[in-house]
Design goal:
Blueprint: E1 6-11, H1 13-36, H2 46-49, E2 52-55, E3 58-61, H3 63-71, E4 75-80, H4 86-106, H5 120-146, H6 153-161, E5 164-170, E6 173-178, H7 185-192, E7 200-205, E8 219-220, H8 226-237, H9 244-252
Antiparallel strand pairs: 1-4, 2-3, 5-6, 5-8, 6-7
């Protein structure tokens, strides 16, 4: 407690890992620069400054500074004037951070700006589709949190992106083969309560697809990014004229 303000020290395990990786990359580059180019290329470099020790005309890596930085990896400080428990303060901050990230995402990742639409109905439909895509992401993230799954969204999307399938024919029968679940991908299916597609699916009789046919190409099994979710939502709404009444009906169905 300082001047009536509480300061709460928090640590984010995911950020701690990211900070550690960034620190190791900086140290590796620093060491290489010292060996290959010499001290003059290090002094004055803002990225290297916190890890450098200058004494008697020599420049060395400050191991104490490295250890101190490692202890603070993933650490941040919250200031509050409330009496809420530290855990509740951290969760409240996390919720605000997600809201802020959502606003950023609607104008970047979701590409909500209807640049290419020519009429009001298409613009409204585009925005609603983007909102639905964002709502799907938030719902999945909440379910992951409820299950205690310690996984970051970018890592989850990266692993889901590896999940794909290919169609092939054998002895007059057509099959679809799915790749294995990589990394954290299984968390998404478990949290959503969805069973992953079968590793091998019999599609029935049929001739092999001709060369170059998209049916024979590798394909994603599930939407693997928020823009893809937006695309899928747009397919649903592209055939519908959206009015203010229909928008309220759609939003009212979302828990």
């Amino acid at each position: 407690m300082v001047e009536g303000k509480r300061y709460i020290v928090c640590r984010n395990p995911h950020e701690q890992v990211k900070d550690g990786a960034a620190r190791e990359a900086i140290l590796a580059k620093l060491e290489t620069t010292l060996k290959q180019r010499g001290p003059k290329w290090v002094i004055g470099n803002k990225g290297f400054a916190r890890f450098v020790s200058v004494a008697k005309g020599s420049v060395t890596i400050n191991q104490k500074a490295v250890k101190a930085d490692a202890r603070l990896g993933g650490t941040f400080v919250l200031r509050t004037n409330t009496d809420l428990p530290a855990e509740e303060v951290a969760l409240a901050y996390k919720s605000l951070w997600r809201v802020e990230r959502a606003f950023r995402k609607t104008t970047s990742t979701l590409e909500v700006r209807p640049i290419y639409h020519q009429n009001d109905e298409a613009i409204v439909g585009h925005i609603v589709a983007c909102f639905l895509a964002l709502r799907l992401e938030v719902d999945l993230q909440c379910r992951l949190d409820e299950r205690g799954a310690q996984v970051s969204w970018p890592d989850l999307m990266r692993d889901l992106r590896q999940l794909s399938a290919v169609d092939l024919s054998l002895d007059g029968q057509r099959y679809r083969l799915r790749t294995g679940l990589q990394g954290q991908a299984h968390h998404a299916f478990t949290a959503a309560g969805v069973r992953p597609p079968a590793t091998v699916t019999h599609l029935g009789e049929g001739d092999p697809p001709p060369p170059g046919n998209s049916c024979a190409a590798r394909r994603n099994v599930v939407p693997t990014s928020t823009p893809h979710l937006t695309t899928h939502a747009m397919r649903v709404t592209s055939q519908i004229k959206l009015s203010k009444i229909s928008i309220r009906a759609i939003l009212g169905r979302i828990p």
